[in-house]
Specification:
The complex is a heterodimer. Chain A is of the alpha+beta class. Chain A has helices at about 1-65, 140-190, 205-260, 265-290, 305-320, 340-355, 410-420; strands at about 70-75, 85, 100-105, 115-125, 130-135, 300, 325-330, 335, 360-370, 375-380, 425-430, 435-445. Chain A has three domains: about 1-145, Beta-Lactamase (2-Layer Sandwich); about 205-290, Orthogonal Bundle (Helix Hairpins), CATH 1.10.287; about 295-455, Histidine kinase-like ATPase, C-terminal domain (Heat Shock Protein 90, 2-Layer Sandwich), CATH 3.30.565.10. In chain A, the strands form three sheets. Chain A has a five-stranded antiparallel β-sheet with strand order 2-1-5-4-3. In chain A, strands 7-9-10-12-11 form a five-stranded mixed β-sheet, with helices on one face. A two-stranded antiparallel sheet of chain A has the order 6-8. In chain A, strand 4 and strand 5 form a beta hairpin. By secondary structure, chain B is of the alpha+beta class. Chain B has helices at about 5-15, 35-40, 60-65, 80-95, 125-140, 145-155, 165-175, and strands at about 20-25, 50-55, 70-75, 100-105, 105-110, 115-120, 120-125, 145, 185-190, 190-195. The longest helix of chain B has 15 residues, at about 80-95. The chains are: A alpha+beta, B alpha+beta.
């Protein structure tokens, strides 16, 4: 999650910063301590030079007496490191660094039981062989360091919490903006091209993104409007001359019939013109279905009834071809569809089934429903569609190799595809062994059929 | 038959004279077709009107009918189609909607009992065949196109692209004409069908 990344980065940065502060401070304090010790030594050395051993001893005792509660440590020892004067009972048992510093531990009866302090001191060799040890009880220093560390740690914790809160707030507002864009996009994809992404008018990056997307949508809407207009113009400008052509042919046919001439050629010409017009109309119909998205024309209807009506229209044709028709319609198959368009799609499928099934063949229609979907199956015993061609048959004007000579303009399935796309239906082609099996799946509705009993 | 090239002029002519029927194109210069019809109806002119339009979707049809027209024909159309519908329009203005028995020669339908008889003999028709026959009888003597049948009997506004209607007609014909002397159901080549006593 974005928040976690943000918080982690922030915490690490804060940690580094605070650690730096801590170590710098600690280092400074240590340096100060050492500097003070050096200064002490310098002072004592002076006294020794001037007043000799006695003077030094007196000074040391004065110092000790003065700063009883202080952290100063002084010890004067002889050549063999035996303690002479000072507030340490003996020379410490610690190794010396090359430049004369010792780090050791202190204990005192006056402190708490088992309390041990750290100490740091410098050995100085006096002229005459005496050793002078000056140092500091680091306890107070340690306490200060610990206090600082604690403060910095709490600061880090608070900072982390603030980062978390800040991160969550920021991502939430980010997510909200993205969600707004997502939702609008969904509505647009579902067909409502008039929607636009809302902006906050703050001029920030999101607003700029939204504005750009909105401009894109304006352009798309304009182009689609253009397509619509072109299509309508085609409808008007091209269909009319075609119609005139056909009507002229019709006139010639009538005249020739009256005068007893040979009308066969002209009849054929009229038929060709009719086929041309029919193809043209089908093409325009498909185009309009594809870009018009008429969700507002959807109504609730029993799929079984719809299928029943289409079957009724084609029944005589089936009878004439001696084909056997089996229809199974279950009740409770309510769907939300454009009745006109779906009827035409089903008619096209049934028309194909009849066309391609041989005489005395078999056609089966099932309308069933379960919890999640309503299903329509139209199966025939014709030649079927090979696996390779199944993805192509929905293209405009596509005809199977095997049926190029039979009547048809190759637009039947294109219309079916356009209608099923409009309704977001699941359309499948399968082999019926032998023949073709077309399966159409509709989402089941929450409405119970009883609600609409009055209309059926 | 009068003709006008724009909506304004056409409306003027329609108001001034009594016509049997008016054919209006939807897209007209000066004043569009729908507005002409609305104005006509607002002035209480009941002349039957057919709209011609290249726009053929259900919306457009409904819009046209709501504006006050009596029929709607989509371009391109066959001339015979227009003639058939004009005839039907005129017939509609004679109110025979109240009749309970339709009769053509010796064929009759009793609309109440849903019984069909020819020459006294009861014919067994399926419900859809009966509705088909009823429509043909209401337009007896007129040419009825396949599109008109598809719209009125099946309420479908698409082109089935196969001769389904023809097969229905031939089935009907086998029931009402086959065993009788005089055929009543005729095919009008290039246009449609007509139910009438043969002359």
């Amino acid at each position: 999650m974005l928040t976690m990344v943000y918080v982690t980065l922030f915490t690490i940065s804060a940690l580094l910063l605070l650690a730096f502060i801590f170590f710098y401070t600690a280092n400074y304090m240590a340096q100060q301590t050492d500097a003070t010790i050096e200064a002490e030594i310098a002072g004592l050395e002076e006294r020794y030079k001037v007043d000799g051993l006695t003077g030094l001893t007196r000074l040391i005792n004065e110092r000790i007496a003065h700063k009883r509660t202080g952290s100063e440590l002084i010890l004067l020892a002889d050549q063999r490191f035996n303690a002479l004067v000072g507030n340490l009972n003996r020379w410490p048992d610690a190794s010396e660094t090359p430049d004369g510093w010792l780090n050791f531990k202190l204990e005192d009866k006056g402190w708490g039981k088992g309390e041990i302090h750290s100490a740091r001191a410098r050995r100085f060799r006096l002229v005459g062989g005496f050793h002078l040890l000056v140092g500091r009880d680091l306890h107070d220093l340690e306490m200060s360091k610990r206090a600082i560390a604690k403060t910095l740690s709490s600061s880090l914790a608070v900072a982390a919490v603030l980062a978390l809160i800040g991160g969550l707030t920021m991502t939430r507002s980010l997510i909200r903006r993205i969600e707004a864009i997502n939702q609008t996009s969904n509505e647009i994809m579902n067909g409502d091209l008039s929607r636009r992404i809302p902006t906050n008018h703050t001029g920030d990056d999101f607003d700029q993104l939204s504005e750009n997307l909105n401009h894109m949508l304006d352009r798309i809407e304009m182009l689609m409007e253009g397509v619509r207009r072109v299509s309508d113009n085609i409808a008007h400008d091209l269909r009319t001359p075609l119609a005139r052509l056909r009507n002229h042919l019709d006139e010639v046919l009538k005249q020739n019939t009256k005068s007893g001439g040979d009308t066969e050629c002209i009849e054929q010409a009229v038929q060709e013109a009719d086929e041309l017009l029919s193809t043209f109309n089908a093409l325009l119909r498909i185009a309009r279905i594809e870009y018009e998205n008429r969700v507002e024309h959807f109504t609730f209807v029993e799929l079984g009834d719809l299928v029943h009506n289409v079957v009724e229209l084609y029944e005589p044709l089936i009878e004439e071809k001696g084909q056997q028709l089996d229809v199974y319609l279950s009740p409770g198959t309510q769907v939300h569809v454009d009745q006109e368009l779906l009827s035409q799609a089903i008619a096209n499928l049934l028309d194909n089934a009849i066309k391609y099934t041989p005489r005395n063949g078999c056609i089966e229609i099932h309308v069933t429903s379960n919890q999640s979907q309503v299903q329509l199956v139209i199966a025939d015993s014709g030649p079927g569609i090979s696996l390779a061609e199944r993805s192509k048959v929905f293209q405009r004007f596509y005809r199977l190799e095997s049926s190029r000579s039979s009547p048809g303009n190759g637009l039947g399935l294109s219309l079916v595809y356009a209608v099923t796309s409009l309704h977001n239906l699941d359309l499948k082609l399968e082999s019926n062994n032998p023949g073709l099996r077309v399966i159409l799946n509709f989402p089941a509705l929450q409405h119970t059929p009883q609600k609409f009993a009055a209309f059926s | 038959m009068d003709h006008s090239g724009d909506g304004q002029d056409g409306l003027f002519m329609a108001m001034e004279n009594e016509y049997e029927a008016i054919v209006v194109d939807r897209m007209l210069p000066k004043l569009d077709g729908l507005s002409v019809i609305k104005a006509l109806r607002a002035a209480n002119k009941r002349t039957p009107v057919i709209i011609l339009s290249a726009l053929g979707e259900v919306d457009d049809r409904v819009q046209g009918l709501r504006a006050g027209s009596d029929d709607y024909l989509v371009k391109p159309f066959a001339f015979s189609e227009l003639m058939a519908r004009l005839d039907a329009l005129n017939r509609r203005s004679d109110s025979d909607a109240a009749k309970t028995v339709l009769q053509v020669a010796d064929l009759e339908i009793d609309l109440l009992s849903r019984e069909v008889k020819r020459g006294g003999k009861i014919l067994d028709l399926q419900p859809r065949e009966l509705r088909l026959l009823e429509y043909l009888m209401r337009h007896a003597g007129q040419v009825v196109t396949r599109t008109m049948l598809l719209e009125s009997v099946w309420d479908y506004h698409f082109d089935p692209q196969t001769n389904v209607i023809d097969v229905h007609i031939s089935r009907l014909r086998s029931k009402i004409d086959k065993d009788f002397d005089k055929p009543l159901l005729h095919t009008v080549r290039g246009a449609g069908y007509c139910l009438r006593a043969a002359n």
